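FORM 7B: Structural annotation worksheet

SECTION A. Query
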Amino acid sequence: MESFLKDHHRGGESVLDLSPRATCGGGVGDLYCEDRASEDQLVTPWTISVASGYSLLRDPHHNKGLAFTEKERDAHYLRGLLPPTVLTQELQEKRILQNIRQYDLPLHKYIAMMELAERNERLFYKLLIDNVEELLPIVYTPTVGEACQKYGSIFHRPQGLYISLKEKGKILEVLRNWPERGIQVIVVTDGERILGLGDLGCQGMGIPVGKLSLYTALGGIRPSACLPITIDVGTNNQNLLNDEFYIGLRHKRATGKEYYDLLDEFMTAVKQNYGEKILIQFEDFANHNAFELLAKYGTTHLVFNDDIQGTASVVLAGLVASLKLLDCSLADHTFLFLGAGEAGTGIAELIALEITKRTEIPLNEARKKIWLVDSKGLIVHSRKESLQHFKKPWAHEHPHCANLLDAVKAIKPTALIGTSGVGKTFTKEVVKTMATLNKKPLIMALSNPTSQAECTAEEAYTWTEGRAIFASGSPFDPVEYNGKTHVPGQANNAYIFPGFGLGLVMSGAIRVHDDMLLAAAEALAGQVTPEHYDKGMTYPPFTNIRNISAHIAANVAAKAYDLGLATRLPRPTDLVKYAESCMYTPNYRNFR
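SECTION B. Predicted structure
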């Protein structure tokens, strides 16, 4: 492994060599003093030159608004540009939160949050970190879905890079137009399958922007190290093509060689510009491209698909945590999925891998405990020749079942998992059948946004007479049934990918391995306490998400070191403390 790494250079430097500028941020200098270690240092507000006066107030990295001290106002030519009062960051946060709460529509709250991020970065992240349970549904699912649908109408200024077919042959040049050089994480989409909303083309940019805001707020990745990218190859959404405010290319999607040539140029340019250790997260690509891209670049780049791998890891964590409530092992379960796309097959494979790891059952045998239903019914061996390649491992010997209800009655699953992207598909009859078959049926309605959930928390608890162990992709309020309050779990990818990304960055990992996904799931399951179990919870509350992310990052980094895929040496003694020290903190810095 070492000889392999020594042969791969970045700018003349081996990825095993640690230069003096290598810091806890995965080898990139802390230019803006964003990490916890720099909180007490005096900061010079550099842009191209030292920012001062009006330009300082317009720089979101350094702007503190009315929190600039009297001394700072004198030193940086701010006198007269601000009202005379000096406010603390905490008072600013209180005022902004109060203003946001006055909006009735979630989309208006989303717009207000994005405007805050564009003028005062640290205040945006402090607000989000301190009020994560309230604001997470605003900056990400479900509200981000509506924001993407209306992105052309609410677009103000670029928040990331747009790479279209017009830039073919010039993608490296386009990457160099981005002002930040120390990029560590890229989230990229082509907009073809945005949440459960379908093809939103160029307007899918809201997804990479939202994901990366969570990488920072929940996982502590520096904002300056994050780059959202949308690859625009057209759209097949006729409504968008007819919309006068649509911001993307106005033609049908490019496919085949034209599409893959553009993606190949992009992947080559990213590695050339940012090096071997840049994390590239594929987001909301359609099934037929998602699996292809992950398979193609998984051996040559540090790539991660949250829809396939992140979803799988967070669902596995919930399943592992639920074992204590059910008093059984993972191998005792029979799983039935509604939906056999990226999420469904990704979750199924990770469950099979975990069963194999725990029991030493061969992988093919572990897969036989897992069944999938797609739009044509139960996936069985008689359908194998007509199946897409990623569905074939799940084509077991069994008579065909035309619909979900028939499959539930025939397979008799202990766990029902929905990844279909179609709402209301866990009908009353389906859920009641699960309740008849199981004392405590495990039901996970994972599709996003809320309108696309296979069933609601209230339906799951009511139709099972309060016996269900329930989790969903989007948030649901607690449900009271027969005098008992049930707290639904949220199998939100935001539990996993921020900490997972931090673990890769802080260890200097060069590839993603399935064992890292298992490590992340086990770390998350380990954060569920007896107090949470007493409430029927299978996920810890989001209020402690940064601590959760630190433990996930430590587990992922440990696995990277164990597998010989980490390049940041020597290995830190306490990986949890090291993860915490690497995390971005949004508190204002004092200027010279």
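SECTION C. Observations
The chain is about 40% helix and 10% strand. The chain has a mean pLDDT of 92.

SECTION D. Sign-off
Analyst initials: ____
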